[in-house]
Amino acid sequence: MGKDKLRRFAENLTFSCFIQPEFDEIFHRDHPLKGHWRRDFFHNDRPIVLELGCGKGEYTVALAERHPDQNFIGIDIKGARMWRGAKTATERGMKNVGFVRTRIEFIESFFAPNEVDEIWITFPDPQLRTRRAKKRLTAPQFLAAYARMLRPGGVIHLKTDSKHLYHYTQAVIEHFGLPCTVANEDIYGTGLADEVLSVKTAYEQKFLACGLPITYTCFGLGDRTEFAPFDWDGDDTVEKDNEAERTQPRP
Fold first, then answer.
1. Cα dist. 52→10, 67, 131, 192 in Å?
2. Per-residue pLDDT, 185
3. Does one domain contain both 211 and 160?
């Protein structure tokens, strides 16, 4: 492991906005902040918004700057990347930003029913291989977890360059009859990108440079709490998703 990564890991532990639990603290058990984020971490009663797979935290920080009346939490497992967002939030004295280093699979250990108001999923790994479809962050098993945390009427935002993930998510929405307010295949080409949607992560800048359109979906879960697995015919295609443009490793 490089010295720079080790330095970032060590500095993460000095940031008051950074939560990094040990594995045995959250495996089949609840984190102490579960159900108490507003009272014990943010010290207010404002809405809580999550960014899943936050990477360097660009979106988490940008959203928090634009909406000081809300609380934002970026979640990812890559501590060296998250360091950038946590350091920026610390240097700017932002009190409505937090970061949690954990796997998304453990998210229910951190948030109680109705504790989360919105979820952002920004440029996640599209998991193009069919055998990994269940790991897509809009797959049924994840929607079931979100349903146990989201308040009634809470929404999920998906911003991605992946046409395959976009169409898969549309299939999931249709299959379960979920309410969907926006489904746009090219937010810049159609002029949909407003101040919030125009925030560009490092990944997005790379994909735009490749000429890939950026898609956006905003949907809810209605009253559903159960989401059974299902097979999607779209996974049977050979050419799934601009794969030639994705040959370079992500930063």
1. 23, 18, 22, 22
2. 96
3. yes
Which one, of 80, 70, 51, 78, lies nearest residue 156 by Cα?
Answer: 51
Q: What is the largest CA-CA distance in the chain?
A: 50
- Whether 125 is catalytic is yes
**Percent of the chain surpassing pLDDT 70:** 94
Distance CA 214, CA 123 (A): 9
Q: What is the dihedral of CA 167, 173, 179, 183, to 10 degrees?
A: 0
| Phi, psi (rounded to 5 degrees) for 204 | -60, -40
Q: In total, how many domains does the chain have?
A: 2
Active-site residue (options: 69, 117, 125, 231) = 125
Model pTM?
A: 0.92
Domain residues for the domain of 61 are 44-107
Q: What radius of gyration do the chain's Cα atoms show?
A: 18
- The stretch 159-172 carries a mean pLDDT of 96
